[in-house]
Amino acid sequence: MTDATPAIAAVEISGVDKVFETRSGQVQALDSIGLTVAAGEFVSLIGPSGCGKSTLMRLVADLDQPSSGSLSVFGKSAKQARLDQEYGIAFQQAGLLPWRTVEGNVALPLELHGAASAARTARVAELLDMVGLSDFADRYPDQLSGGMQQRVAIARALAEQPRLLLMDEPFGALDEMTREKMQTELVRISAETGAAVVFVTHSIPEAVFLSDRVVVMSPRPGRIQEIVPMRLGADAQRAARTEELREERGFFDMVTAVREALHGGSPVAAGPRGVENR
Ligand SMILES: Nc1ncnc2c1ncn2[C@@H]1O[C@H](COP(=O)(O)OP(=O)(O)OP(=O)(O)O)[C@@H](O)[C@H]1O
Ligand SMILES: [Mg+2]
Questions:
Q1: Is residue 21 domain-shared with residue 82, that is, in the same domain?
Q2: In the chain, fewer beta carbons within 10 Å around the N or the C end?
């Protein structure tokens, strides 16, 4: 199913608009969004609060529908992709089931897919180890900090080794140390599994560290302002990204490039688009 067709995009978004009807009138959250995320590619969305990042993620995840335009996930409709469990999700709210333990929450997608009990137990142990929660397997979500809950959600999203991960500020609630550790883990996991990732963040260094491309959005209505490809040293392979990268010149250059794109429309700082000024 997958190996023979590597050319199918993980996500294909074309001319997507989203208008919300509210009591005080219409809110255009997204305007003519076009974006293709290749299989295995890591794409981050960054932009000011309210620019439509979560809205766009919700459309991809079939939690809401576009007002116009089209959207597909591995060549399927958003709905079909959801039914086929084509992706794992980790969103702003951890979204754990309060009546299930940590272990029970992580095991849920495996249960839904009918994994054998022994294999499930082994996989859950491996995942909890990865997110550093082995000692909390039998706790309930309300006994955990926000950051720990978020790590459970991430483990759950990874449970089935999906070929697409949709992550909306998954590390927002984590302390800086844990956050960097999770970033490194995510780079490793996505490189190892070849999963495509669509990742929302407010952190420029986080976007730079993780991504192949950073999509910069502008607010009201949400549009794609610029797409910045990450060029990080001679070996730009994601698998080669390590902690040292954060100290490198090329890393800071990319942080500057994304920052300038975010402040686009400020001609003095950025100059004409595409012009190198570093
Ligand atoms: N269900 C809804 N009904 C009405 N308006 C909505 C709805 N959901 C989102 N919006 C509006 O759409 C716009 C985009 O919201 P969205 O949550 O996508 O922003 P965001 O980029 O994720 O912001 P943040 O960085 O703060 O998470 C906002 O103006 C918001 O008020
Ligand atoms: Mg959001």
A1: yes
A2: N
pLDDT in tens, the chain (278 residues): 555 555 799 999 999 999 999 998 999 999 999 999 999 999 999 999 999 999 999 999 999 999 999 999 999 999 999 998 899 988 877 789 999 999 999 999 898 888 888 889 999 999 998 888 999 999 999 999 888 898 899 899 888 888 999 999 988 878 888 888 888 888 888 887 789 999 999 999 999 999 999 999 998 889 999 999 997 755 556 666 777 888 888 889 999 999 999 998 454 344 444 443 44
Which ligand 1 atom is at minimum distance from the Cα of 18?
Answer: 12
Ligand nearest to the CA of 45: 1
Same domain, yes or no: 182 and 266:
yes
Q: What is the pTM of this model?
A: 0.86
Let me know whether 152 and 117 are in one domain.
Answer: yes
Taking a C-beta distance cutoff of 8 angstroms, is the pair 242, 184 a contact? yes
The structure tokens 């994601």 sit at: 238
The answer to whether residue 66 sits within a structural domain is yes
Q: Is residue 27 classed as helix, strand or coil in its secondary structure?
A: strand
Distance 35 CA to ligand 1 centre (A): 19
162, 85 Cβ separation under 8 angstroms: yes
Q: How many domains does the chain have?
A: 2
Counting ligands in written order, the one closest to the CA of 63 is 1
Number of the ligand 1 atom closest to the C-alpha atom of 57: 18
Residues paired with residue 35 on neighbouring β-strands, in sequence order? 13
The answer to whether residues 66 and 173 belong to one domain is: yes
Instruction: Centre a 10 Å sphere on the Cβ of residue 100 and count the other Cβ atoms it contains.
Output: 15
Residue with CA closest to ligand 1 atom 26:
49
- State both tokens at 223: 């549009």
Question: Residue whose CA is closest, atom 6 of ligand 1?
Answer: 20
For residue 227, what are the domain limits? 11-86+164-270
Expressed in angstroms and rounded, the spacing between residue 50 Cα and the centre of ligand 1 is 5
Pocket of ligand 1 (CB under 6 A): 20, 22, 27, 29, 49-55
